[in-house]
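Saturday, quiet lab. Running sequence design on the structure tokens for the scaffold JK sent over.
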């Protein structure tokens, strides 16, 4: 299991809102490296009170050191992000020394050529299937693993660094345990990262651990109108979880680009399936979140007491 690193900002869900906007291309510094986020609506979504984690994620980085671009697009799968030309657009912006966070899977399990026609074949192999699309055109559909490898290898060819992420967690519970992702996409993403020699962030486990500490009732406010798309508070937790996973990567070059005020606390190793153990400050803070709607001052005090923050 990966080592989880928890930041001071990680649990500021009830009293702190991170305001972040994707910078316009004219505001980007071409002399700096760029960190791209590519994925679906769980990373980029502002409809019906929802928000994707890619927006608050931007605020963790020092804009004087790195550009951060959220290029995720709602409704896309690993397949359609490529076939619709969205990936080519990212490649046209990419240069040597950049970084790309890649997260797909929520939409890859759909139909191949009916409805929204965005599904990929399951698995990691080289098998294909030719289908007739609703437009009448033929398309050769590949496996989920094939599309991930395409994204990873295209990124490497540009001299940039790809990082694969497992899925965000849906608000689906069974006997007090939250669902650990849809299908086997997290497992396939991890296997692809290993085979291609790139970094992998087990976001599913990181987020699920936090949800189960908070409990089903408290987690409800982290979602908007359905069980997949987070509210702004939920987006903040997911963004902080991504940062926790990135900071846990051994000797990872992104570490130098975080704002100094987001100081990591002690590392926490998760149990085989459950919540992190070994940090009493974390347990107290999570308990405070549960009651933060009625006692936010106590939560803020606990946060100051148990988490360090640079000045």
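Result came back. Writing it out in full:
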């Amino acid at each position: 299991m990966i080592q989880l690193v928890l930041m001071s900002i990680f649990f500021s869900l009830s009293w702190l809102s991170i305001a972040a906007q994707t910078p316009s291309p004219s505001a980007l510094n071409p002399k700096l490296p760029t960190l791209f986020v590519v994925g679906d609506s769980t990373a980029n979504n502002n409809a019906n009170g929802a928000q994707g984690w890619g927006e608050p994620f931007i605020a963790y980085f020092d804009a004087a050191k790195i550009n951060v671009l959220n290029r995720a697009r709602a409704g896309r799968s690993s397949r359609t992000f490529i076939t619709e030309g969205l990936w080519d657009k990212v490649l046209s912006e990419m240069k040597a020394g950049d970084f790309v966070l890649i997260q797909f899977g929520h939409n890859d399990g759909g139909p191949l050529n009916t409805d929204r026609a965005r599904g990929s074949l399951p698995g990691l192999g080289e098998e294909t299937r030719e289908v007739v699309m609703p437009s009448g055109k033929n398309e050769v559909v590949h496996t989920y693993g094939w599309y991930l490898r395409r994204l990873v290898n295209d990124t490497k060819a540009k001299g940039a660094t790809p990082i694969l992420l497992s899925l965000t967690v849906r608000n689906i519970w069974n006997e007090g345990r939250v669902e650990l992702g849809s299908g086997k996409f997290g497992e396939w993403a991890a296997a692809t990262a290993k085979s291609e020699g790139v970094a992998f962030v087990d976001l599913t486990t990181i987020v699920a651990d936090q949800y189960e500490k908070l409990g089903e009732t408290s987690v409800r406010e982290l979602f908007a109108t359905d069980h997949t798309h987070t509210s702004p508070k939920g987006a903040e937790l997911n963004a902080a979880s991504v940062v926790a996973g990135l900071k846990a990567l051994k000797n990872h070059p992104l570490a130098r680009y975080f704002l100094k005020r987001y100081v990591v606390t002690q590392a926490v190793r998760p149990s085989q399936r459950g919540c992190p153990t070994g940090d009493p400050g974390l347990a107290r803070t999570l308990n405070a979140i549960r009651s933060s709607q009625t006692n936010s001052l106590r939560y803020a005090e606990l946060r100051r007491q148990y988490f360090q923050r640079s000045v």
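Notes for JK: Residues 1-22, 263-311 have pLDDT under 50 and may be disordered. Residues 232-248 form the longest helix (17 residues). Ask whether to fix the surface positions before the next round.
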